[in-house]
Amino acid sequence: MxxxxxxxxxxxxxxxxxxxxxxxxxxxxxxxxVCRNLLxxxxxxxxxxxxxxxxxxxxxxxxxxxxxxxxVVEMLIVDFLGVCMDALLNQAAKIETFSGxxxxxxxxxxxxxxxxxxxxxxxxxxxxxxxxxxxxLAVVVPSNPADAGGLMLAALEHESPVIYLExxxxxxxxxxxxxxxxxxxxxxxxxxxxARGLVPDRWKAVPLGKATVLRGGQDLTMVSLxxxxxRCLEAxxxxxxxxxxxxxxxxxxxxxLDKETICEAVATSERLLVVDEDYETFGLSGELAAxxxxxxxxxxxxxxxxxxxxxxxxxxEDQVLPSTARVIKACLDLLDR
Amino acid sequence: MQPDLWELYEQMLYxxxxxxxxxxxxxxxLISGEMHLGLGEEAIAAGVNAHLQEGDALAxxxxxxxxxxxxxxxxxxxxxxxxxxxxGLCSGKGGHMHLFSKEYLAASSGIVGASGPAAAGFALxxxxxxxxxxxxxxxxxxxxxxxxxxxxxxxxxxxxxxxxFVCKDNNYSMSTQSGSVTGGDINERARAxxxxxxxxxxxxxxxxxxxxxxxxxxxxxxxxxAFIRARCVHPExxxxxxxxxxxxxxxxxEFGRVFLPIFKSLLKRKGATLWKRLEGLNLIxxxxxxxxxxxxxxxxDPLIVTRGKLTAKPHRLxxxxxRVREKIKQIEIAAIAPAES
Lengths: 337, 341
Fold this sequence. Notes:
Chain A is of the alpha/beta class.
């Protein structure tokens, strides 16, 4: 085992895969700067700078994948997918079905996501529910270094498009790039065990669509992903002092979704709290309630999600994003019912 | 008509000193997130904005503060917004990339290229509601590779919309040299859409004023849309705390986070040949030095260039500079003062 930061784990897993598979190339805006270590290790033919033309380079990555390459697109932040949604929505996601299963698109799209550093609602969205809504796209959201590397390897091995979302509060370089800018005068609520942790000496894929139970507890089940997982763990620790035993499940993948693990836990606790940094309505939280009900499990349900457009001001942003305090309050409300 | 260089210099200095205040407050940690300033773009904003009238609209990019200040938007409200205060221009919800003033028909976006379609729509509305008015789209040369901007050029041309496209060309698409990711010539591209094009030195406010005046007159008289390419330099690079410049200015501070992983990548087992690895390293080092050289050069600083033309009247200059300094001081005091309930 080694200790690594969240970002080094991703880079290390990518490096391991690139060393073994010459078809993997990285491309994106400022990719040579962002992925400078991989540029040096693998040479400039493997890491390409693109113009600010998301529609062109994401669209091109889709067809390059169809034609035998394994492109990894560096999209900087998930919000920028708004510029080039056609390449995912109408192209990448559809080709496998349209070709009768004969042609697949082994593409990985890496995007920074999430808020908590005061950059405003056009740069801090999560959007995984919006993406997972589209049949044909896999969507993964690691919450710690070990999963980050393992899910990257799984994404690279997957034969269909994978959107790989990296929360900026976990990623030191992203947070410096978009938040601190070298300043020591600003601070963020960074979950320590998410930003740095033990990783295997050699990466193995963490299978897509497998959630993990981080904490057992029969009173209440919290299901979460990304940075919010750590807010849930913190909340569960505090609740335990009041005699409440809450379990915490880290989804890791939004699509495919691990229905079994969720249903099993909720069947025991009969109380489900979804903590989801994506928007509240028409998204992951509602989907989780639906799948548990469809399984015939009766439950009490609550959710802590992002309500409305994320405001720029830090104090206002803190009210809108899921926080440990909001999670604790929601747990207590749910247990009251 | 001749430009009033004193007035233009005052506008530019006002914007520069306002943004220097923003820079200080950002460094003090009172402003969050990224901070893209319009330092180095002042002559372009001043030369273009001088021709605007009531009813004209502004579509702005992520460096919207200078054109907003020069348009007359309340500077205290802008500063309060950047400080994230509830009584800021956008109630603390927008921040520097998302500044909006309905009163002045001015809208910003942090998405590169978005000002193109926005300006086309403002111009379309002007045709129905404010005949004789026009709209300005401010964007960088990196945005000309964005499909939506190309589509907006075509739409504005096909519908003969009164749009002035202002391309602030610093030759950097974020940290990537635009020449390395751009095919052909930008102005030729715009001409291919049937748009009238101009080239100007963006550090020369008189030249910008003259060209923009010509373009604006044409637009008010119903000719086809216009495109001005104005070259400039951003002394702080892409944004404040820009890593490339930090590496140059304080290399020892970035040793652990930047240099150590680079050295490790040179030596790591499996990968390209050493020669190829050195080639990659050379690309990065070359970029750092080039950026350092360009940003350190003051020959394109519009404030220095313009001030040099006014030194023959030192008393008037000193009086102007004192006045602006005092104004900025009052703005900061008013913005930082606790909100009255």
